[in-house]
UniProtKB/TrEMBL annotation:
The keyword Oxidoreductase appears for this protein: yes
InterPro entries: FAD-binding_MO, FAD/NAD-bd_sf, Flavin_mOase-like
Species this chain originates from: Pleomassaria siparia CBS 279.74
Coiled coil stretches, renumbered: none
Protein name, entry field: FAD dependent oxidoreductase
Assigned keywords, A-Z: FAD, Flavoprotein, Monooxygenase, NADP, Oxidoreductase
Name of one Pfam family that matches: FMO-like
């Protein structure tokens, strides 16, 4: 691929709309997009690239979410960038500190100048004749056209503009304040107020201790069914540093720490999947030891599913469990009969009074950022496609996806995708190919799998919007970082891939 950028007036656009030409365009400046940018500029130094970001800041999820206590649900030693290791002692980080870390990263590696903010990609069409993508972009009331030989989607897996709308009977009757965590009002006052948080996932268990610490009058987590929650200890500034960290060179100790967290996470997942009954007892016993004495475990902390059938929730230094000792935090396991003007009536007959209802009901799944995708102006049906190495879609030439793990840090998967895609582009350049399109046989497409192997409500609700995974070869979903890393660096790029050489 060539390494120049040109800006010219393209008559085909009409009205003299300027067109911008790049070898690679990355859409989204979150963790996945920034990671892809680093891989592109290091593995493909002669290729031109840019990042188009819809919003006015980097960070994706971490600059979008503003609810109390917002933090990572994975350790930053594996969630962070391998080329710019997380150096702070705490492994679970706040959203604000993650955004700061990302700003440091894009500055340190000269990526910041490649980001174009307030550039919303609304449509993308692949032209077989021209062997390139045309992106229609809206920016500050104007329209621009971008062309790219290869596009990498760093848009995540959920809709940034529309949260999952759970059916809550009578919610329109509530006369207090209703809030979804995805759009938390910056001026919301809840000190001394009665709050009910509907949900039992990572967001709910983050908000509860945060609002209790900030002085909420009472906060009740209302759950239909409980989740597994595990405390993870946090090192703080000033805490003793292990001897091995003091003796070894910093760069080496950071690599060891990343490996340590990686292996511990993998072992925990395998333990839960292989010995679910033992894991269930272990997690329940740990929760009981951290809760106030005589706190009722059943049904509030006894999930009906096996550990890791849904994502395991982590809380730093047991803050979720400890907040119940204040007397202002409560958990209720029940279903909603209806919402009334001043609270929630439950099926059991109990009523929860509320000034504020927080609907922590999940995310709306969305692949490729809701962009209108076409190939030779024919619409692309994402739900009917299959994922090649969890990084490209059948029928879509020269377009990569940055999809992470559901059983480990998301960024581990997006980094494997970036490594694989840059390797694919180098392979195309070396062999004179102008396009690479994943192509699956009828036999390989039989008995498809969900690429997000979780039983969480938001995954079930969105299953009809996402592509399939297969059960063999390059169509299998990601499941093991080390295996997938080997595939990203050494797998046969021709398996399941159709290449073309077209003169343009």
């Amino acid at each position: 691929m060539t390494g120049h950028v040109t800006t010219d007036s393209d008559p085909a656009n009409g009205n003299g709309v300027a067109s911008h030409n790049y070898d690679v365009i990355i859409i989204g400046a979150g963790i996945s997009g920034v990671n892809a940018a680093y891989r592109v500029q290091t593995a493909l130094p002669d290729s031109s690239y840019t990042i188009l970001e819809n919003r006015d800041d980097i960070g994706g999820t971490w600059s979008l979410f503003k609810y109390p206590g917002v933090r990572s649900d994975s350790d930053l030693h594996t969630f962070g960038f391998p080329f710019n290791p997380w150096t702070k002692p705490n492994s679970i980080a706040t959203g604000e500190s993650i955004v700061e870390y990302m700003h440091d990263t894009v500055t340190k590696f000269d990526i910041a100048k490649k980001i174009q903010f307030r550039h919303k990609v609304v449509a993308a069409n692949w032209s077989s004749d021209e062997q390139r993508w045309r992106l229609d972009v809206e920016t500050e009331g104007q329209r621009k056209v971008y062309y790219a030989k290869f596009v990498i989607m760093g848009t995540g897996y959920y809709d940034h503009t529309k949260p999952l709308q759970a059916v809550i009977p009578g919610l329109e009757n509530f006369q207090g304040k209703t809030v979804h965590p995805q759009f938390w009002p910056p001026d919301l006052t809840y000190k001394g107020q009665k709050m009910v948080i509907i949900g039992s996932g990572a967001t709910a268990i983050t908000i509860l201790p945060a609002v209790v610490e900030a002085g909420v009058g009472s906060a009740t987590m209302l759950q239909r069914s409980p989740s597994y929650i595990m405390s993870t200890p946090q090192r703080k500034e000033g805490d003793p540093v292990p001897l091995w960290e003091r003796v070894l060179p910093t760069w080496f100790s950071l690599r060891l720490k990343r490996l340590q967290f990686l292996l511990v996470g993998m072992v925990l997942f395998l333990y839960c999947q292989t010995f679910p009954n033992h894991a269930r007892k272990f997690l329940t016993k740990e929760a009981k030891s951290l809760l106030p004495a005589d706190f009722p475990m059943d049904p509030h902390f006894k999930p009906t599913y096996n550990p890791w059938d849904q994502r395991l929730c982590f809380c730093p230094d047991a803050d979720f469990f400890k907040c119940f000792a204040t007397g202002r935090a409560h958990v209720v396991t029940d279903t909603i009969k209806r919402v009334v003007s001043d609270g929630i009536e439950l099926t059991s007959g109990e009523k929860l009074d509320a000034d504020i209802i927080v609907t922590a009901t999940g995310l709306t799944l969305q692949f490729c950022g809701g962009i209108d995708l076409t190939v030779d102006k024919k619409p692309v049906d994402i739900p009917s496609s299959y994922m090649w190495h969890a990084s490209m879609l059948t029928g879509l030439p020269n377009m990569g996806l940055s999809i992470g793990y559901v059983n480990a840090s998301w960024a581990l998967g997006s980094d494997n995708a970036a490594r694989l895609l840059t390797r694919l582009i180098k392979f195309m350049d070396a062999n004179g190919y102008t396009s690479a399109t994943p192509d699956i046989t009828e036999e390989e497409a039989r008995d498809p799998k969900n690429p997000l192997d979780l039983k969480s409500t938001y995954v079930k609700e969105g299953s009809g919007k996402i592509p399939h995974a297969g059960r063999t070869g390059p169509w299998k979903p990601r499941s093991n970082y080390l295996v997938d890393k080997w595939k990203a660096e050494r797998s046969d790029l021709t398996a399941g891939m159709k290449f073309a050489k077209v003169s343009t």
